[in-house]
Amino acid sequence: MRVPLSWLREYVDVAAESTPEDVLAALVAVGFEEEDVHRFELSGPIVVGEVLEFVEEPQKNGKTIRWCQVDVGDGVRGIVCGAGNFFAGDKVVVTLPGSVLPGPFPIAARKTYGHVSDGMIASAKELGLGEESDGILRLVEIGIDAPAGTDAIGLLGLDDVAVEINVTPDRGYALSLRGVAREYSHATGAVFRDPAARDAADVRIDRHEFSVAVDDRAPVRGRVGATEFVARVVRDLDPTKPTPSWMIARLTLAGVRSLGILIDITNYVMLELGTPIHGYDLDALTGGITVRRATAGEKLQTLDGKLRDLDVEDLLITDESGPIGLAGVMGGGTTEMGASTRNVLVEAAVFEPITIARTARRHKLPSEASRRFERGVDPGLPYVAAQRVVDLMVELAGGTDERVGGAVGSDLVRTSIDLPTGFVAGLIGVEYSDDEIVASLEMIGCAVAATEQGWTVVAPTWRPDLTDTWTLAEEVARITGYDRIPSEVPVPPSGRGLTAAQRGRRRVSNALAAAGYVETPSFPFTTEEQNDLHGSASGEHLPSIRLANPLDGQAPFLRRSLVPGLVQVAHRNVSRGLTDLALYESGTVFLPRSGVVYGTPHVPPPAVRPSAATLAELDDAIPPQRRHVAVLLTGSLIAKQPGEPARAADLADALDAVRTVGLAAGVDIRVTQGTRAALHPGRTGTLDVRGETVGYVGELLPDVAAAADLPGRVVVAEVDLDLVLELAGDRVVVGSLSTYPAATQDVSLVVSADVPAADVASALREGAGELLEHLHLVDDYRGAGIEHGRKSLTFAMRFRAADRTLTAAEATEAKLAGVTMAGRRHGAVIRD
User: Fold this and answer.
1) How are beta strands 581-590 and 518-519 bridged, if at all?
2) Of 301-310, 511-520, 616-625, which one has max mean pLDDT?
3) Which carries the bigger pLDDT value, residue 388 or residue 131?
4) What are 750-781's pLDDT values in tens digits?
5) 376: exposed, middle or buried (C-beta count within 10 Å: 0-12, 13-18, 19+)?
6) Does residue 257 lie within any of the structural domains?
7) Which residue of 112, 588, 777, 789 is surrounded by the most CB atoms within 10 Å?
């Protein structure tokens, strides 16, 4: 909201010495945000001049210029002018050498058309008083008569300045000079003069001769589209009368361009009082006004010239011919006020905020009117605002007020709010006296009455945001000063740190980062084909969640796997020359249950606690979301260097990443042969913990990698992190280290080729007992010396005791116990 200071001073006492920065500081103190300061970008000397005479001189280029003699107060100056709309004896605005006009455009004496032009006669556009120019600004047309040499900057209001503040959506009353002046009064204690303070007799309609009706058969959320509608008739207007310079200057500083006296008056009153006003050419209306919802198939051509298809929720202004305006948003072209308008119907109304907001967004048609209506306007102002417009049209456009019109409305019901003693202090954390609370609420216009428990408070009509005790408490804090609220960091209750799951996720993420992987979070959006390929073991079609309003129409589904996102990140990096990649992501995947239809449930109204059934419905509308962790490797894991060839990342490196995840989570992840649609057969493993499948590891099929433009080998792994952490439970991840030396032994076992090495390792580990500290597979041999259909598995075993140094015999005994268990379960025998 831009606030010209000369206008602000009409309604509140602003000290003459106060700078724009002082005014902004005062408004910031009561909760507004400072935006900017706006001025007319010009400087003097700019004076009133009287055209004594001129000579018209045709030029070779076909143009005719005037060589003028102009009295500027301190003498007569010769000035060349190309305009032809002024006469001898006219008072005009002269910019003398040394002045600067908006642009910037410096003025100097210069030779042109055979004369030295000692200044320039200015138009309104050149002075910054409008977007259009019909020639030289003649002061007589705007009702100004001043002696030659008078400073024109002050005379035209070009020395005014405006401060701009940001108005939050809940404080729509401040989108007016009335509201800002009241807030400045709150901040400084200056006397406030309400421009809307008029006797009811002054604004009444004497003859209700114009038909007005509200016919809303489909109210939004049970609220009628228009609660107040006042229409006033003004006759015998002269729309060609110029808008006064002071009004143009104020509108310009407020960010509104001048569009002619009739429209300028309606905009001026909207900025002054905060009530949007619309004017209709009365002679273009057919019958009376009816406010109603649109019907299917109706259309309306709005003031911007566009023909719009209307929605059944749109609120319309209609006459007997049909729609003539989108209520609270924009009028229609058929009843627009223009140069031929002689009689005007003035509209001041109160429309339902949600309806106006939806209409403005639906038609992509934001306006100054809709901006105010959707925040809530003062329901006590339509009569006052309509009368203010009528008075200005009579004064400035020569109209006649016969006090004729029409109106519909309802009684203003102002609900009281119970404010208990101690509530404000308990919420804000500051001790306020009862007098401070009452004085603050009365200052903003509330009616306050004491009760045994505290007070009953009735908010003023211009504050629809004051609806409960919390908003009243916020007002007390705002008026008494935010600086009284201490800056204290709250102390969390004991024992409320990270949950076990949060700690586990952090351990896993930190472990992968420490292992050299780079975290690459990505959007959780993908295609249905990618979900089927990577989100299921066999590639069959599985249900996916489709977004109603996706960011990317080509990827409208929520992901079932993290791998498509990692593949996309890898593709982007490879395309930029980064071919050696070790990536990971930890994030949620969305796994809808088969047979369940997920959609948008009924959304409960705001400020009302949903019932248990409604909450259950909302929960059921959300698909299960599991947190996974996935890795992707491609290119060289070790770069080529002197004396060392490059080593490409392979499946063993992905398995190392899986072991890193398992160690950080506190579980042993077992790998067995598996298959997946997107992975290479024979190079795919299924991951399980204690018999439950938790993920997979493997190498992407060459055609899958090629489809993503990824050269060479690509290996991936994905783990259900939530499930792994659940299976880990409260297991201790780090134990104490023994100070006694270890005993190491190897063993080679021959088993059937179809027995997984992990099963043999599990049997060895169980049979060896507590002395076995570590075991891992070091060789898988199939060839000469081994029967067909069998294989030799070599394991490295490390034994250690916590209380003594083991003997070789003890280590051998534990090893053989493990061999015995492997033989019993899988027919393993020691290789000769």
Assistant:
1) parallel
2) 511-520
3) 388
4) 999 989 888 899 999 999 999 999 998 999 99
5) buried
6) yes
7) 588
Nearest to 54 by CA among 83, 77, 88, 84: 88
608 is a domain residue? no
Q: What angle do CA 600, 602, 603 make, to 5 degrees?
A: 95
* Residues paired with 428 in a beta bridge: none
Host domain of residue 540: 500-598+618-728
Q: Check whether residue 813 and residue 722 sit in a common domain.
A: no
CA distance 105 to 234: 42
For residue 770, what is the domain's CATH number?
3.30.70.380
Check whether residue 286 and residue 318 sit in a common domain.
yes
User: 152: part of which helix (H) or strand (E)?
Assistant: helix 152-155
41 and 207 Cβ atoms separated by less than 8 Å: no
Q: Is the pLDDT of residue 734 over 90?
A: no
Alpha helices in 481-585 (DSSP H): 500-514, 528-534, 563-575
Angle CA 652–658–664, to nearest 5: 140
Q: How far is CA 750 from the centre of its chain?
A: 66
Question: Is residue 700 located within the same domain as residue 784?
Answer: no
Give the DSSP H/E element, type plus range, for residue 389. helix 382-397
- Confirm whether 635 is domain-assigned: yes
Give the DSSP letter of residue 672.
E
Q: Is 473 among the domain residues?
A: yes
Distance CA 99, CA 78 (A): 17
pTM strictly above 0.85: no
- The per-residue pLDDT for range 694-705, each reduced to its tens digit, is 999 999 999 999
pLDDT in tens, 478-492: 999 888 988 888 777
Select from 118, 106, 27 the least CA-distant residue to 75: 118
| Tokens standing for residue 282 | 């009365």
Separation between Cα atoms, residue 262 and residue 268, nearest integer Å: 10
Distance, CA of 810 to chain centre: 70
Distances (CA, A) of 715 to 60, 194, 254, 539: 81, 74, 62, 18
Residues 446 and 462 in one domain: yes
Do 103 and 58 belong together in one domain? yes
If asked whether residues 174 and 135 sit together in one domain, one would say: no
Amino acid identity of 175?
A: L
Give the chain's mean pLDDT. 90
The encoded tokens of residue 761 equal 């390792």
